[in-house]
Amino acid sequence: QVQLVESGGGLVQAGGSLRLSCAASGNTFTIIGIGWYRQAPGKQRELVATISRRGNTNYADSVKGRFTISRDDAKNTAYLQMNSLKPEDTAVYYCNAGIERYGIQSPYWGQGTQVTVSS
Known about the structure:
Structural class: mainly beta
């Protein structure tokens, strides 16, 4: 069994910064790709950023230049550094990881962490 746990969310004023973490725990696993998603009230979940096992990154246009995704495989942890936050960034942020166990790759989701940006 593998679990993903997000942390680092909270309330911040517009223009501020937050750093989200996504920690994976369990036995015998390898993290392949990692993605951060977000879901605002009344809206569909949307992709924010991804990072491959090789470190290649992609970002939604709405966060380019403001957010940075990274990973530390030694700690089985991914991060999302969010700068210059805007009220429209308010959402529940979810971590998603493609995890390989015993030769089988499966997607895992964290429980989400709330980010609220006040104007």
